[in-house]
Amino acid sequence: MKPSFDEMTRAADDPRAHYLEYAQWLAQQPGEQMAARRQEAEMIFRRVGITFAVYGAKDEDGSGTERLIPFDLIPRIIPADEYARMRQGLAQRVTALNRFLHDVYHGQEILKAGIVPAEQVLNNSQYRPEMQGVDVPGGIYSHIAGIDIVRAAQPDGSGTYYVLEDNLRVPSGVSYMLENRKMMMRLFPELFALHRIAPVAHYPDLLLETLRDVAPAGVNDPTVVVLTPGMYNSAYFEHAFLAQQMGVELVEGQDLFVKDDFVYMRTTQGPKRIDVIYRRVDDDFLDPLAFRKDSTLGCAGLLDVYRKGNITLSNAIGTGVADDKSIYPYVPKMIEFYLGEKPILENVPTWLCREEGDLKYVLDHLPDLVVKEVHGAGGYGMLVGPAATKAEIEDFRKALLANPGNYIAQPTLALSTCPTYVESGIAPRHIDLRPFVLSGKSVQMVPGGLTRVALKEGSLVVNSSQGGGTKDTWVLEA
């Protein structure tokens, strides 16, 4: 594998300019003091209940697991000029994706122009015919987007940012971004006096503002709720956290009902009409009358109210068709088609296994590539060729031949590394970044995002469900 771009140093004992003060500070910290800080952080996170349920995993006693997402004390630092460019690229990308979603559910101009193959959209399991012709406030479908960004080394020693994935349905992780910052400020207040670090604590205010911005027409003081599948969902902590931070109700499907084309929640004072639902429930489970009949997580009749414009769902039903991995390769063309601009952030080169020439290349180079299911998530259903056994590669070869349209492939990027505390001390580990982009009357984001880190040596899989951890992300103010 190619050498990685190190975020902190150019070479041993040669910190990059934006890390210089931090590196000098770190070199002066006694190891036992940093170890004590690690223990303190873990104790506080456990006490607060910042856990992540891992489906299918079992503890030694056979019970299900609620795991603490490991938190690393060494921050990822991004200089102001780099972030300014990234922010422009994120706003551009999410704006184009929202335009694409409006288009595919209305005039389908991009399909008629042959830029995106119609069958890739209309036959996609995430495409919702029920949304065809439905107008949503401001034409915005994905109000909360999590765009995964990686950095790879270039031959000249620089690092280039790439978008790895677009998460437009119910992206998670923002609570960890906020809690990581609170923890760093508690453990190392002196670092925040030493550096001009852009704040992130106002994210819940921006989120509430965004949700209120997209309320149905004519609603001046909208009632907003967070809809959760319940306490057994892997991200339940985040649902409860965000509702509490925004000062809105956390509800489950059983708390909601439809009457006279409006949605109400049950309260101790009687029914209360609601206007905006920040839903953390997948499309299939939102309305048993329209989608999965066995769902108890949603609200019967919700789709009809939505189609009549009397409730806003954030994110909209049907957004998944735009973050499907088989649609991802077309996003740069979407930016040019809808905005008339060149993409600021690049895609990772991608082979579409449904295309004969691409499939042949992928089959010939499986040991060198990353192969992903188009609907896969959480680091599941993928092959990392350089880290796979011969048996795993041959099993994937059979799966590819059986259903090539279900897969894409990409080169194995040497994701950038950042120094990380591990059992043996400080060592480089691969990272990515998930900024959270809010689209209401304007596109807004707090500086940085959630940095995820692959804690296993050499691993490129940063997902918490696969043993990954998180870091605080500092954007330095100019």
TrEMBL record:
Domain Circularly permuted ATP-grasp type: 75-454
Superkingdom: Bacteria
Pfam families noted in UniProt: CP_ATPgrasp_2
Transmembrane segments annotated in the record for this chain: none
InterPro entries found in the cross-reference section: ATP-dep_Glu-Cys_Ligase-2 (IPR051680), CP_ATPgrasp_2 (IPR025841), UCP005522 (IPR016450)
PANTHER family in the record: BLR5612 PROTEIN (PTHR34595), SLL1039 PROTEIN (PTHR34595:SF7)
Name the UniProt record assigns to this protein: Circularly permuted type 2 ATP-grasp protein
